[in-house]
Amino acid sequence: MAKKETRAERNIKWIEAHCVIPEGKDVGKPVKLREFQRNDLKLIYDNPAGTRRAILSFAKKNAKTSLAAFLVLLHLAGPEAVRNTQLPSTAQSRDQAGVLFELAAKIVKMSPTLEPHITIRESLKQLYFEGMGTLYRALSADASTAHGQSPIFAVHDELGQVKGPQSLLFNAIENAMGAHDAPLSIIISTQAADDADLLSVLIDDAKEGNDPTTVLSLYTADEGLDPFSEEALKQANPAYGDFLNKNELLRQAADARRMPAQEALYRNYTLNQRVEAYNPFVSKQIWIQSGEVGSFRGPCYGGLDLSETNDLTSFELVFPDGGTYDVKSHFWLPGDGLADRSRQDRVPYDVWNKEGHLLTTPGKSIEYEFVAQFIADLFNEYDIRKIAFDRYNMRHLRPWLVKAGISESVIDERFVEFGQGYVSMGPALRVLESLLLNAKLRHGNHPILGMCAANSVVKYNEAGDRKLDKAKSRGRIDGMVSLAMACSVANEESGKTRVFPVDFEGLAV
Q1: In 266-393, which ranges are continuous DSSP H helix?
Q2: Which terminus of the chain has fewer Cβ atoms in its 10 Å neighbourhood, N or C?
């Protein structure tokens, strides 16, 4: 007895019998679905629980929109068609909405079996199959055409472009589908940039497996992989080496490795990772206008960002001079493995060390003893009024400060905790940004601080408050964290009377 054909197998057979390749070198030839496309159709149509929502996410150029067009036609004029129903697709712009419509229309025009039966309405971006009374239309978020819909099937194209957790168009279509017994929506998109964006929320919920009627097919490069490796490319691109040119992808990887400014887009578009397109806190043009070297006289204020084990530790001192702040930068890394760290971060730490811009501590991890002694020496050299610090690692530094001769009372008076959240960092960034925009920050073009400035991006909360985001930045930003803290505490404390020099326990000053 012959095995009964599944719903997915029937649909695959229909697509390959009636659809053609709409673009590219094989344009006009009959479709031959690839294994990953067949698997996606089986995931959608052979789900024992029945599928209400399917999320298909992979990198760009893997024929996402072509697959979406095949599914539209399958539900418009194929075995999935339901008489007198509406089949919208959604996109965030008119241009994007037009892409899916145009591909579907091209397939119809070149298909000898579909062309005689489907009416193409170019100006309205509609396809109409008179035999079943089914109507497909392309909708965009910048048009008010979603109302009055009662769709049974919908495609949400490139939903990853939605910023934030809500989309009025998505919600309108999804809510309108409740009038049918077995509606189906297909989300087909490259990943969104942020965890809080709508597509990310939907993907994370699908990963939890709470709703058996939601299925997920996600091709993305593992975060732990070398992002420029062939393995990473293969994970995110199921068509790699097939109709997707592997040499072109390898070239993109090489370009992104060589030019870090391209890395964010490469990770999002080519590796299908959640990466915000790079938007620096300060532009290069604004940064370099403050490159003058300061005089380092008078009272000063510090910002200390202590690293974990082998990361970059930063200590910035700012000297208010009228309305201008002079900046003196200090950075540490472990001495062992410095050349390896230079290759890993793709910055010349070893060169900066030889030039005196980077200090090192012995061994493979940061030794707080050396940092503490260095800061103690600076107390004898400069009139340090306050030092703001991230309290997380301060418990490890404090005993070394005492050993270096700084009394407990001085530590309690001069060292102040500085939160790293929106409440503290928001005002600090406003102070720093104002100084930079008005060319009132003389940082001397310190190369490591400049690297941190170029890497720094901000993250916003719902209230619009900001903080520097280490997780989303392109590289080390420790110097900018320290600088923001130092400028903030200087802005608050300058003008108050303090005693200098500091009376260290057991030290003559």
Answers
A1: 284-288, 338-345, 349-354, 368-381
A2: N
Are 445 and 301 found together in one domain?
yes
For residue 498, which of 316, 294, 330, 301 has the smallest C-alpha distance? 301
499 belongs to a structural domain: no
Are the C-beta atoms of 330 and 353 separated by less than 8 Å? no
DSSP-assigned letter for residue 251: H
Q: Using CA atoms of 126, 129, 135, 137 in order, give the dihedral in degrees to the nearest 10.
A: -20
Residue appearing with tokens 């004029």: 77
Q: For residue 117, give the 3-state DSSP assignment.
A: coil
Q: What is the dihedral of CA 12, 18, 23, 27, to 10 degrees?
A: 110
Average pLDDT over residues 114-122: 96
Distance CA 120, CA 209 (A): 39
**pLDDT (0 to 100) of residue 493:** 83
Residue 502 resides in a domain? no
421 phi/psi in degrees, rounded to 5: -90, -170
Residues 269 and 281: beta-carbon distance below 8 Å: no
Sequence-separated contacts (24+) of 169-172 with Cβ below 8 Å: 169/90, 169/139, 169/140, 169/141, 170/90, 170/198, 172/146, 172/147
CB atoms within 10 A of CB 438: 13
* 191 confidence band (pLDDT: 50, 70, 90): very high
Give the structural domain span for 272. Answer: 222-278
Residue-wise pLDDT for 9-18, tens only, equals 999 999 999 9
- Which stretch of DSSP H or E encloses residue 429? helix 422-437
Q: Are 101 and 156 in contact (CB under 8 A)?
A: no
On whether both 446 and 323 belong to a single domain, the answer is yes
pLDDT tens for 133-159 read: 999 999 987 655 555 568 999 999 999
- In angstroms, the CA 191 to CA 492 distance is 42
- Kindly report the backbone phi and psi dihedral angles of residue 109, in degrees, each rounded to the nearest multiple of 5, phi listed first: -60, -35
Q: Is 14 helix (H, G, I), strand (E, B) or coil?
A: helix
**Residue 62, Cβ density class (10 Å: 0-12 exposed, 13-18 middle, ≥19 buried):** buried
Give the side-chain half-sphere CA count within 13 A for 22.
Answer: 22
Tell me the two tokens of residue 442.
């003389």
pLDDT band at 317 (very low <50, low <70, confident <90, very high): very high
As given in the structure block, the two tokens for residue 71 are 């599914």
Q: How many Cβ atoms sit within 10 Å of the Cβ of residue 460?
A: 14
Closest CA to 188 of 148, 163, 215, 152: 215
For residues 389 and 438, state if they share a domain. Answer: yes
Please state, in angstroms and rounded to a whole number, the distance separating the CA atoms of residues 83 and 80. 10
Return the bridge partners of 320, or none. 325
Start-to-end C-alpha separation, the chain = 99
Rounded Cα distance between 91 and 109, Å, is: 23
Q: What's the CATH code of the domain at 22?
A: 3.40.50.300
